[in-house]
Amino acid sequence: MDDGSKTVNRTVNILLVEDNPADVLLTMEALKEGDISHELNVVNDGAEAIAYLRRKGKFTDAVLPDIILLDINLPKKNGFEVLAEIKEDPRLKSIPVIILTTSSAKQDIRKAYDLHANCYIVKPLDFDAFLNVVRSIEDFWLTVAKLPRVTN
């Protein structure tokens, strides 16, 4: 019988690709307050994201994430380039990628979905609203949705 609790039988691995330290801290705080056991790894630019996912350089021991939170406006390699590389890689393409960005431009939304983003969310500027967005991501993607388990 389902008691309605938000429990997951295992730790969920999350990769946050974000160059804004304040947004990293807000995301960490929102996830910490949640009910899901998780491991959050953070990279600060698009090139690091690809290195992490391909376990290159300092990321040779990286665990592939169950879900990726990806900003668009990143140094070195933008979020669209990262998304395209993820979705073109047979080993990575099944990992859900949630675009979490400040851009509400229609062309950015269209481009993200054309590149097979699983979700596009505009970051609210308000602190409480941002926390609610991250909690909503947690509630849906880490509790309701069934995630594929990508093998390392």
Distance between the termini: 33 Å
Note the run of SSEs as H and E.
EHEHEHEHEH
Largest beta sheet: what is the strand line-up?
2-1-3-4-5
Q: Care to count the β-strands?
A: 5
Radius of gyration: 15 Å
The helical percent reads 25-40%
Put simply, the count of helices is 5
For the largest beta-sheet, the strand count, sense and barrel status come to: 5 strands, parallel
Return the CATH class.
Alpha Beta
Question: Could you tell me the mean pLDDT?
Answer: 87
CATH T-level topology: Rossmann fold
Described by the principal axes of the CA atoms, the overall outline is globular
Derived from helix and strand composition plus strand pairing, the structural class reads alpha/beta
Instruction: Name the beta content range.
Output: 15-25%
Poorly predicted runs: 1-8
CATH architecture: 3-Layer(aba) Sandwich
Total of domains: 1
Could you name the CATH homologous superfamily? Answer: Response regulator
